[in-house]
């Protein structure tokens, strides 16, 4: 995974219930990918609407990533909808005030209740400094995040993609990415991590963008955290 020393300037766009950030490099990335990879050219043409978006809230993005661990996008959204109904505005203090029983009733497993509670404490106690992340390299941010209980490399990479909008993240632990590469490049045959990495070598320095289109190829609804 390549390092980006500073986060790109983010453009604003209307989306959902409010304004979200969209990456200014998207058009350049699509042109680059389309010129280097025939599959990417087809996918970009097939899904011309939308692009990667950030909700602009680091806690919210990490919460959604934890909720989405090891379950389908549809199931994760169902749990999230219940959590929103419970919490109202999702803040660290709201999560801590809620209590484990209510979080379990919203659909979180006992383990995930522990994870989101620990995450909320890290933010509430000031143990994390989100303002510092924009100047940090990808791997340094990953090391800081995986020190939090329940956050592994996959969750940290989702944060790099969906919050910091780093353009060249390749989440090889993502089941959807591996499955999408299998379908689009190997006619559905099983794909190893090394084979996926080799396919993705043509995507640099926009592997986050290519990953987003691979996800779209599996689900017409854009993935968001």
UniProtKB/TrEMBL annotation:
Database matches in SUPFAM superfamilies: DNA-glycosylase (SSF48150)
Gene Ontology molecular function, alphabetical: alkylated DNA binding; DNA-3-methyladenine glycosylase activity; DNA-7-methylguanine glycosylase activity
Domain HhH-GPD, residue spans: 67-219
Hydrolase in keyword set: yes
GO cellular component, one term: protein-DNA complex
DNA repair found in the keyword field: yes
EC code(s) of this entry: 3.2.2.21
Gene3D superfamilies, sorted: 1.10.1670.40, Hypothetical protein, domain 2 (1.10.340.30)
Assigned keywords, A-Z: DNA damage, DNA repair, Glycosidase, Hydrolase
A GO BP annotation: DNA alkylation repair
Source organism, top-level taxon: Bacteria
InterPro entries per record: Alkylbase_DNA_Glycosylase/TA, DNA_glycosylase, HhH-GPD_domain
Enzyme class: hydrolase
Catalytic reactions of this protein: Hydrolysis of alkylated DNA, releasing 3-methyladenine, 3-methylguanine, 7-methylguanine and 7-methyladenine
Alphabetical list of Pfam families matching this protein: HhH-GPD
PANTHER family: DNA-3-METHYLADENINE GLYCOSYLASE
Similarity-based family: Belongs to the alkylbase DNA glycosidase AlkA family.
Protein name: DNA-3-methyladenine glycosylase II
Name of the coding gene: alkA
